Amino acid sequence: MKPTIGILSLGCPRNLVDSESILGRLIQKGYKIVEIDKAQVAIVNTCAFIEDAKRESVDAILDLVELKKEGRLKKIIVFGCLPQRYKAILNKELPEVDAFVGRVSLEAGLSRFAITPRHYAYLKICEGCVNLCSFCIIPKIKGRFLSLPVNSILNKVEDFDRSKISELNIIGQDITCFGIDLDASINLAKLLRKIVKKAKNIGWLRLLYLNPRRISDDLLKIIRDEQKICKYIDLPIQHINDRILKLMNRGTSRDKIIHVIDKIRKTIPNVALRTSVITGFPGETDKEFEELLKFIKDTKFERLGAFSYSREEGTKAYGFKNQVSEAVKLRRYNQVMSLQQEVSREVNRKFIGKTLEVLVDECKDGSYLGRSEFDAPEVDGLVYINSKRTLNLGDFVRLKITDTLEYDLIGEEEG
């Protein structure tokens, strides 16, 4: 009899897609998938993007090692970014793990075993990264950029459409690069037109991770014109000071970032812009950090996440002089997030009295939580739903917004 298998997927949604594909293949081969604490074989998909992610991955492995020592697990298999970077060290330090496997090459068209809630899913359209940001280890871990086959992508969209999910999140390290390794007949905007035609039953299509350098007019027009595509753009800028952007090797400038933000907001007036920034990059001065703070205050991103700079071996920035202390990095991070709380509170107040379509994400004892099209799963705000009728996971409801919190909204169902 084949052993039961459980999986723990850590890190980004791209990892989650890989985990779902691996589970799909295992099910095809006759394995039974169970909760990881009830499994005979545990599989861990790890992340090694920054120090916190590495620590989380190692802690998870150590927890499973304890279960194995207690006789509750037969085997542990670890794959993904952590062994891709540190396989030799891990083999030496964790002999209890049965196998460390680095980057896994997954063939197109693998069936999927859903880890996400049943009403939304992630669709990965590319692998790797063409950008060579000085702070980022991803290109060395994930390898060269590769657009996935168009037919395979569209077949998966059809599968998702048949399963009647409410939201499909289209992801990749930088999806604006889609098609650059193919011929000129395909790019992200053209792919989206094909996806929209296949997604007859899917309510929302969300685009995640767009590089500000590659936002085309054609792409903005399809986001604006296609009702299914969420008016939400995740546009990581990382910084705004020209010297820091150059050191980061971002291939852009303050003026270019401002230009693309202005173009997005003029083309899609009701858009929600999300960005991410890094605090404490090597050599960042107080003045340069203040420039970043002022830009955040003036630009009023609807959504924003911040990271303290993580010094990663193998990146160009690892060897930079003038490394910023952990205390200063953390202080600057806290300042950014405190400022964004104020910005978010101001942005949210504008929704009071307006009606939004909201996707029901959680149902418990007559209480409901959801998200608007301006909020991605797991990372953005929530909407507290007041409804007099019974709602189901994945329902779309129209809410009149009655109140706000720092990051969240409160609404009453209309009618």
UniProtKB/TrEMBL annotation:
The keyword Lipid biosynthesis does not apply. The keyword Cytoplasm applies. Its main location: cytoplasm. It holds the Pfam family UPF0004. It comes from the Bacteria. Its EC number is 2.8.4.4. It catalyses: L-aspartate(89)-[ribosomal protein uS12]-hydrogen + (sulfur carrier)-SH + AH2 + 2 S-adenosyl-L-methionine = 3-methylsulfanyl-L-aspartate(89)-[ribosomal protein uS12]-hydrogen + (sulfur carrier)-H + 5'-deoxyadenosine + L-methionine + A + S-adenosyl-L-homocysteine + 2 H(+). NCBIfam families: MiaB/RimO family radical SAM methylthiotransferase. Belongs to the methylthiotransferase family. RimO subfamily. PANTHER family: RIBOSOMAL PROTEIN S12 METHYLTHIOTRANSFERASE RIMO, RIBOSOMAL PROTEIN US12 METHYLTHIOTRANSFERASE RIMO. Catalyzes the methylthiolation of an aspartic acid residue of ribosomal protein uS12. This is Ribosomal protein uS12 methylthiotransferase RimO. It comes from Candidatus Sherwoodlollariibacterium unditelluris.
